[in-house]
Amino acid sequence: MKAIPTPLRIRWLSAAGGAPVRAGAERHASIAIPAPPSAGLDRGEMEMLDLALGMQLCRVAHRFARGQAGLRAMSEVATELPEPVLFVQSARSGRGVLQDAGLKVRLEHDPAVCVFAHLDHIDHRHWAETGAPLEVTALTIGASTLQRSLGEPAAHALLAALGILRAPSASRRPLPPPITALLHGCLTDRFTANLRTLQAQARVLDFLVALTDHMVGVAQPEPGKLRSIRQLRGELDPWHESVPDLEALARGYGLSVRAMNEGFKREYGQSIHACLSDLRLFAAHAALQSDGLSLKVLAARLGYADVSHFSNAFTKKFGYRPGGVRRERWAEAAA
Fold first, then answer.
1. CB atoms within 10 A of CB 217
2. CA nearest 269: which of 145, 96, 109?
3. Are residues 199 and 245 in the same domain?
4. In sequence order, which residues have a C-beta less than 8 Å from that of residue 252 and are 6 or more positions away?
5. Are 269 and 175 in contact (CB under 8 A)?
6. Phi, psi of 18 (to 5 degrees)
7. Whether 175 contacts 114, CB under 8 Å
């Protein structure tokens, strides 16, 4: 099996004047490439592991200083490829954007929506939404490895279901959390050396089987309905401070509420209400870092019944309470 080529050419964009570095993943032992210090970035790191079977894992984590908001360019990654590859990128937390220079596309991704690409070379720029910590896992699999692992018919069917049968091409697809959890669990700190590599290989294969089983059996929506669903998603961002009338939205697109919700969940992996909830919580996180509103006023502005409901939803989403964000911002201002 052909190995994924190394080294990668990496340039951190989070620091002004960052020079490119060349780094190759190590077999059986991961390497960590820290991001250079820069304003607004508490911590940034890239970790790579070569599985020596035509597969490579990469995990990137960024934690931003309080008070940050908006998209920020973080890194450029490029390498030549001896054969086409399947590339998968999934966010465990936060929101990011992958820009492919060859395809000239920008692909947004979050914990519900993953990026898939069939590439004959890699030339990526990565962006992060700085309102919350971002952690992503990327998997690169050579075409020959994919065919040997799944069998040629299943590998072909998977690429077709993902809409990336030809190289180069890319798409975004929702995946259920149990499947993305398999990918995020490939790189753990529980084991070291050979045992860590063996565990990663096993979990990658588990992920591939689950992904194929899910995607090949999923019926694709009609092209016209899919265009409507994607247009609808773009119109939801302004609604984070209120809940839209779903019946009125559905009528505007010539759909029933049920068809609209089912199509949205199939494309983005969550219901419209769940998507709106995420938008509200990301808006709340950004407001806590920059505004002086009380939690009561902020909860009411974002449409929550009370502070307790808002606080519980926020904690479930980010893993810490909203008051902690506000106290940390005050502490930094006092310092």
1. 9
2. 109
3. no
4. none
5. yes
6. -65, 130
7. yes
The stretches of 5-62 forming alpha helices (DSSP H) are none
Give residue-wise pLDDT tens across range 125-171.
Answer: 998 988 889 999 999 999 999 999 898 888 999 998 888 988 899 99
| Pairing status of strand 71-93 against strand 134-142 | antiparallel
- Report residue 188's pLDDT band, with 50, 70 and 90 as the boundaries: confident
Residue 197's CB: how many other CB atoms inside 10 A?
22
> What are the CA-CA distances from residue 39 to residues 12, 20, 44, 68, 329 (Å)?
13, 19, 12, 10, 15
Q: Do 185 and 304 belong to one domain?
A: no
**Cβ contact 326:299 at 8 Å:** no
Name the domain count of the chain. 2
Q: What global pTM score does this model have?
A: 0.66
Residue 166: its H or E element: none
- For residues 273 and 192, what is the distance between their CA atoms, to the nearest angstrom? 42
**Cα atoms found within 13 Å of the Cα of residue 93, Cβ hemisphere only:** 13
